[in-house]
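Field: COMPLEX_INPUT
Field: COMPONENT_COUNT = two
Field: RESIDUE_TOTAL = 590
Field: MODE = joint
Values follow.
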Amino acid sequence: MHRSWWKTAIGVVLTAIMLFPIYWMINVSFTRRESIRKGQLLPFDFTTAHYQAVFHDQFPYLATSLIVGLGTVLLTLIIAAPAGFALAKLSVPGGRFLGFVLIVAQMIPAVVMALGFYAIYNRIGLLNSIPGLIIADSTIAVPFAVMLFTAFMRGIPREMMEAAKLDRASSWRTFVSVVLPMSRNVSITVSLFAFLWAWSDFLFASTLDREGGNLRPITMGIYDYIGAQNQEWGPMMATAVVASIPTVLLLILAQKYVAAGVTAGAVKD
Amino acid sequence: MTLLSQDPPAGLRQPRRLDAERVLSRKKRNRAAMLASLGFIAPLAIYLFVFYLFPLVQNVVMSLERYDRGTFVHGGAPFVGLGIYREVIGSSRFWPVVGHTAVFTLASITVQYAVGLALAVFFKSNFRLSATLRALFLMPWLLPVIVSGTTWQWMMNPDNGVLNNVLGFFGVDPVWWLSADNALWSVLIANIWLGIPFNLVILYSGLQSIPESLYEAAALDGAGAWRRFRSITLPSLRPVTLITLLLGLVYTLKVVDIIWIMTMGTGTSQTLATWSYGMAFGKGTSAVVRYSEASAVGSILLVVALAFGLLYVFTQRKESD
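Field: COMPLEX_OUTPUT
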């Protein structure tokens, strides 16, 4: 009993060290401009001015990120759920090969994909557009999503499927009325990660949506500060805190789904 | 036989009456089943073809022709075969960049693994709050990299960064963290910080699957904690270790964001991935955009990543068989 208190104390210290950069970001975001460079451990010169600036300036970017995130979730689910069902329960010619392709697809360097997308988008006019970004962002999530759906749907008992078969349901009806309702949790996990990766994406946003003006995601809103001559750390850190909100919400509200996704095997970095 | 599963072997279920009509309808149904499964898989197949293969091929094509900004406007890039590759590999920057990439990748995955394992062992002895703290540890891994990158950049600011303030408190001279010479170590620190949570979670779940009875037996034999770790934990984790390190290797090879955000690939922090990114999309001093060279470097990176990726697939197959 005594020992476990010691362990808790050590654990808290380790976690505090690990999360220090996040604390530091919050600290700076609440500190008045003239005091930021003093580097005090607490925001003694407290202000919320940076946040007012954020909501004023960054609103279009936040809205864009939200649309791109939701669009990516939708596209990922539409592609991945039926494919997972086919790979798990139907006889697909070349199913094993497809599984192999999905693993390899996750290993392609994003910069290579970005270069290819850039050249293609340039030709068909999808550069600096929301649909273009949604398509590119979905490539981060789709392989992972298909594998997760397949792994889960394999575990659906045959009896459930047989019952659906007796009343002559087509595969489509079995899928919609039996398999999908049972896959609620795995769908949530997939959606969470697809949203989070699209929301956090820097590489595709900075290559395929560089000149999109207000149609750029929040990651670009933060990136603009870096390029500026005179870096404004306060508003920048405040924007960073706001951009972290989805992550924090997910960790608090959907922890079990996050854990399910992380340990699902082939996980993104 | 059914739309939902493959037919059972013929010997298993003999239909009572096999008249021609039935055989015919079964054939029809089989074909229907095949079509149905194709309907489910087709969107993915088309998707992979259009959104993966197409950009990849495009990338390779660009590395074999001489592309520049003008090409995108009025088309027409001369085919130069492997010329671009020869230029890239022959350039004085190539081998240093390969060196940085190797150091960045190998140092990242080994330190991430070591720290992740130590933490996993620590968290395994369930104490008060351990689950909550473990969840908090995930945060760095889930935050947008632009957030962590800018925060590290500020912490490493030479004049007012908190890291130098802390060093100064102990009487150490300020470190020029993001200078050309130190950039590699600085992005390494940030990238290790990003990767620890992933290693912790994977290794923690690996530890959970080691039967407790092994430890009890060893304890009865009088084995100390270190001995138990060496003779039970490490050998039992071998498959998980291999997969974690290989996956980490492939993922670290292609890292662009954290490096670019912190240093823009300055000096020693230039890796193959950031070099490729910078030549095509960087806001560097040179206004010349070099898509072909970027694609060539990208393709080289692709080959290396896929080589290790195949090793991973092979390892995983072997472990699961």
